Amino acid sequence: MTPESQVLSIIRTTPELMRILTLIRDCHLKQGALAAGSIRNTVWQVLSGQPVQLGSDVDVVFFDPERPASDDLKIYAQLTQLAPDYQWQVKNEVYMANYNFSDTPDFTSVADAIGHFVEVPTCVGAYLDGDELKLIAPHGVADLVNFRCRPIPFYQQDERHRAIYRQRMADKQWQKKWPQLQVAEV
Predict the structure, then answer these.
(1) pTM for this structure?
(2) Is residue 99 a contact partner of residue 118, using CB atoms and an 8 Å limit?
(3) For the chain, where are the E strands, in sequence order?
(4) What is d(CA 67, CA 61) in angstroms, rounded to the nearest whole number?
């Protein structure tokens, strides 16, 4: 089994993730996907034999230059009404390139945006194309399934970028939940 098929299998067999993916698909967002922690944490929980718990935000990302940033709140309200049991975060990635740094190039797609999340195992997304489950993994999923965490190349380029990665690792404390996780020091 390839790492990609392993991740797809975990998503497919996790009812909560499939419910979320269906809700996202039914919102008809351009390049709409579930991304980041919901997938990362679920994969680590399943591979560790832990119960799946979506304790973090449910990150919905999309890429639509024709929608104003204020539409994020409308989509959030719609999803919250449909499934209030989740902590939804909705982001049109068209507007997110300068979130950490003003010199970040504009994103060109959801995959480009996901590929700029701080650490490699977080750079993962999934969506339903009809009923077919698709994966977005600009840096692959080998680090994710092998419990390795390192910053993407963009966050290795200078001290201010590395500091963001180090701060996230200090804040997240993932090794307490997953002791087998190898966190790269930079």
Answers:
(1) 0.94
(2) no
(3) 33-35, 58-62, 88-92, 125-129, 132-136, 148-149, 182-183
(4) 13
Token pair listed for 99? 């979130």
Parallel/antiparallel/unpaired status of strands 58-62 and 33-35: antiparallel
pLDDT digits (tens, 9 = 90+) for 37-90: 999 999 999 999 999 998 778 999 999 999 998 999 999 999 999 999 999 999
- Say if residues 5 and 133 touch (Cβ distance below 8 Å): no
CA-based nearest residue to 35, from 90, 73, 76, 85 = 90
Residue pair 126/23 in contact by the 8 Å Cβ criterion: no
Helix (H, G, I), strand (E, B) or coil at 103: coil
Which residues span the domain enclosing 72? Answer: 3-183
- Looking at the 3D structure of the chain, how many domains does it have? 1
The model's pLDDT over 143-169, given as tens digits with 9 standing for 90+, comes to: 999 999 999 999 998 999 899 999 999
Residues paired with 61 in a beta bridge: 33, 91
Are residues 94 and 65 in contact, defined by beta-carbon separation less than 8 angstroms? yes
Q: What is the DSSP letter of 100?
A: S
- Rounded CA separation 127/144 (Å): 18
What 8-state DSSP symbol labels residue 171? Answer: H
Amino acid at 13: T
Q: 15: domain CATH number? A: 3.30.460.10
